[in-house]
Amino acid sequence: MSKGHEMAAEGNAHNGLTETEIAFIREHLHDNPGELILKAGKFRGLDVKKLAAQIQSRQKALKKLPEWSANENLIFPPALSVEQCSSEATAHYKAGMVSGETLIDITGGMGIDCYYMSRGFAETHYFEQQPQVASSAAYNFAQLGATRIHVHARESLAALQDGLTADWLYADPARRDANKEKVVRLADCTPDVAGNAALLLNAAPNILIKTSPLLDIDLASKELQKLKEVHVMGYEQECKELLFVLDREMPERDFKIKVRIIDAAGQPIHQLDFDREEERNAFVSYSKPLGYLYEPHAAVLKAGAFKTLCTRFDVQKLAMHSQLYTSEDYVGAFPGRSFKIVAVCKPDIREIVQHIPGDKANITTRNFPAKPEELRKKWKIKDGGEHYLFATTLADQSKVVIVCVKPI
Question: Which residues pair with 6 in a beta bridge?
Fold first, then answer.
């Protein structure tokens, strides 16, 4: 490793924030950053634009990065970078997947994942091509006491070509074109982890790749060599990210899909492991709505476990394309939202209002020729309340509205 590229984790690569600046951020943490900039003249001797940017980023990070937000000494990147970085919840989960002597993070960035994963290693190498980003990461790692992380402000693939090796290698490839709304292929990301698979697998026997949840899992599985597992990560109500695990010793393309719906500590609340063959062969039965209704979590839908849900949880589908499930007895372990069915109505507000008190209800549509906001406007129903309306299509192609409440 050539000298001059590595920044000491003790933090001398960045000056950090002064006590006065920290006090200003603390005092104005919940203020409007734009209004603070307009009032900059009131705060003599302070770079209010810089501090307003820190406040804006910390506001974005309060829920997503609670531990980092609580540390007043840390330097935060622009708010957009905070929006795009991993949450502490998913970082905790990734930290539980990896361990060994040495970790290489080839995509650096803010360093959330690197920081938490580094706890399982004696030594970690963080690579980031942008010097300012790398210096901020080095400073933050030092403030957090992560002295075993070596920060390198250089291109990571060149370091691998120079012979750097590890037990695990981590990559979070970025979209090449910032204007792209969807990322379907790994080839649309940089670095090209699929194109450089031989180099990466030569550097480490185990590789963990994080991607956007928009990536096509089956297309990526064809692009990647030695694919062992795909973890589909759900947090709260969203599918947050996909994690591809490569293993140098994997003999064939027989990867497992692991759905993990986690809590704030990164611990699974629900989990479902299956493979594409099981999904293809799973038996599905269809039924009219019974005693309970189930809406799969977004991560389960992303994973494509549409038929597997029926065999694993003893539930029936309402229709092939509706992705809603039902059972006579309550299935508390179902990975998603569960409801007790109150009534099944025609999509007619005169019939629906007989089963909901007042003018409030939560509306969801699945395989139905109208959006929730259109129905809300048509039916004059406000959002909220304890009742849930599912407008959907049954197996006999009839359109219905299923009135539900949360099970006790």
Answer: 152
